[in-house]
Amino acid sequence: MRVFTRFSLLVLLAGIATSVVTSTWLPAHYGPELLLVGSLLTMGFLLAEQLTIDVDVKGVGWTISFSEIPLVLGLLTVPFEVVLAANLLAGLGAQVGRRAAAHVAYNAGVLCLEIAVPFAVAAGVNAGLAGMAPMWFGAAAGTLTSSLISCGFALAALHVLGGGMRLGAGARLGVRTLAVGLLNTSLGLTGYEVAVSTEWGWVLMALLCTGVLAVYRAYSGLLRDQRDLETLGDVSLSVARSGQAAIRRPSEADSSGPESSVAEWAPVAERIREQLNATRVVLRLCLDPRGEVSTLVAGEPLPETAPREGASILRECPMLQLPGSHVRSFRTLDASEDIRLALRRRGAYESLVVPLRGTNQMLGAVEAHDRVSRWRGFGRADVRLLHTLASHLATAMDNRRLLARLRHDAYHDPLTGLLNRTGFREMTHEGLRAGTAVVLRIDLELLTTVSEALGYAWGDRLVVAAGRRMREEIGPDVPLARLEAHSFAILLREYSRQQAHELAEHLRAVIAEPYPVDRLVVEASGVAGYVSAEPADSEPAEHDDAEIDVDVLLQRADVAVRAARNDADGVRGYVPSMGQIFLRRFQLVTQFRQALDSGQIEVHYQPKVALPDRRVIGAEALVRWSHPEYGRLDPDEFIPVVEATGLVDALTSFVMERALVRVRDWLDRDLRMSAAVNLSVRNLADESFPDRVSEALVRHAVPPELLTFELTESSVMADPERSLPVLRRLRELGVILAVDDFGTGYSSLAYLRRLPVDEVKIDKSFVLGMGTDLSDMAVVRSIVELGHSLRLQVVAEGVEDDAARDKLVQMGCDTAQGYLISRPLSEERFEAWLQARTVREAGSGKWYGEGQNVCTTCTTLTLRNQSHV
């Protein structure tokens, strides 16, 4: 601006010098009539300046006006000094009235040159063409130079301000300016000749001027409308592009500041400033969810006293106190004291201010300060344009906020405000492209108990609290997600496995700290698993992959969490062997139903022998799976998987049906032997299970006392309120109920008295240790005595040698089961074992416990002298 100030002073000096020289050179004729003519010329110049066509090019504005008409009339009628005075009074008076003092020097110099040079040119042309051309010829030539002077100095000012035009564009602008000047000059000369030489010529002159003015105004309006439409289109496109950029991807930590978003609005502010031809446009936008205001300035910088970032719009902009969304125009001349103070703080004399109001809140404001054009301030067209632009901006910002909210809801969990699974997947994709990353998954445990005791709302509060604790520990820039229920995931960039393990242990300890709930303190725990995107954690076939799927990483982290539940410290890192284990379990689950139908699942039998007479009184039905790919599977591998997936009902029904078929076959062969079937937790929680058992007994015509159900203490105590009614109904059917693995769980006198059972089975771990551990022998003896005191049959499983059998006989144990007698055998081998290892004896009254009669027509099987297989 200092360069332009020096340039303005030079223009002023040139104008004064030219005026002085012209005044000295040209003769002056003064008379009383000149006062009236001078006043009329001044009014003519003022009127011409009010009816202008504004041209704004690269931030520099000037006007194409009708000033050539009063100028050519002045050249033909009055002395130079009168025309110069009229032009200066009209031009500077209008400018000073609008307090546009910044350009007074430049405009005064141009005003002087626009009068002095045409008079000099007109005098020179008339002197050179004396007698050869009419007098108006010199006046026409001088008037045309006035238009060229205005255009030339405007281009010079544009160059000084650093926005120079190309030579071709400048030449075209000069030609158009000359064309407009020629038209105005012709109009003025024609009107002068008509008014002088024709009666009532001034009437024709008035009609002609009115028509030309109408054409000019229509053209100016069309030109302005076209530029306004272009501006609206540009602004809408800029807002749309910035909005698309702003919501392209989810925020990592939901705390990104408004600065990056404000920069996207710079083209919008600059486009508005260019169209309004303002020295400055200020955008104050509420882009921050906390309501803070961000300020963007296009054009001249704001003074130090102007309101800055973070200020409240209504507090710092008293111009917006009025309701509605209309444009307010303020000038220092007629404004109230607080408005004048606000304008002075902004370094402005005139301002257009319009609020940006959304559906339910203030979105911001637009301020336009001081029009650049020479004399005219902001007009009605500027007000209409700014109002339309503000409406478009407010609508665009509202839509943008709505899209941002929809985008946020799509990528964030509504309960905690953290990323959801979709958002975490997007962030993890970005993290994998940026470099190495570790996916850490943490599960909050025991929430089911809390929810049942306090309600699910309190469980949700614990989830929110756990997420807040982890956010405070890892910081705002680390992506944290709630995947589902009580499971969280964290993306760790540039973390080693050791660092991830240490962080997992720390976070697990943090979320395990007590949670205050009103007057209660709720305890919780957590397990953590992590997986690295490096090849060390990838399957061998994936080492060469350019990119690892995010879902694969999440699945592996979940596998690590499951493994961590069996770890002492509750933290595990994923290794490929885990994937193989869980893949195998998944295959077993999906193939189990087909295995039942295809005969892969078999029932084996392990005999049970009464002590001390060695009578075979029954067998325990045990399930076996011969897998076509994995071979013979251990029951401890597939039965827990089957139980966890809800397929155990099908398995229990299958074993029970095969056992009842076998019992019925024994009865048909005059052998009274029972079969024992194991029950799971799910069976005891199924209220319809006793009905299915009753129907199966009737269908196979098997006495209920020949069917035994074995259940563990833990399965009953998992939900005793549901298990006990089922057990009582089974007891009412007449089936035998046995407690398996007695001595390892809740074993107590009160426990046995509560359960409606007929038999206890001593866990094999105590029976195997009787020969070497006196405490195990004491436990076995205690169980035998306890069972007999409650009139229960006692079965010892795990009998593998004669010494153990003899000790059990001495203790009075009723039944033995174990490898000393036989391993579990398939149906065919079990029948062969019966034939080879037993002898038939006639029925001998009572057996298998007190009060249970045998069929006197049936025979019993007694072991031969061989004691083991």
From TrEMBL:
Transmembrane found in the keyword field: yes
Record flagged with keyword Transmembrane helix: yes
Keyword set, alphabetical order: Membrane, Transmembrane, Transmembrane helix
Pfam family, one: EAL
Domain of life: Bacteria
InterPro entries, A to Z: Cyclic-di-GMP_PDE-like (IPR050706), EAL_dom (IPR001633), EAL_sf (IPR035919), GAF (IPR003018), GAF-like_dom_sf (IPR029016), GGDEF_dom (IPR000160), Nucleotide_cyclase (IPR029787), Rev_trsase/Diguanyl_cyclase (IPR043128)
Domain GGDEF: 435-579
Residue span(s) of domain EAL: 585-838
SUPFAM superfamilies registered for this protein in UniProt: EAL domain-like, GAF domain-like, Nucleotide cyclase
GO molecular function, one term: cyclic-guanylate-specific phosphodiesterase activity
Transmembrane annotation, as ranges: 69-92, 104-129, 135-161, 200-219
Ranges in a coiled coil: none
PANTHER family on file: CYCLIC DI-GMP PHOSPHODIESTERASE PDEF, SIGNALING PROTEIN YKOW
Protein name stated in the entry: Diguanylate cyclase (GGDEF)-like protein
Naturally occurring in which organism (per UniProt): Haloactinomyces albus
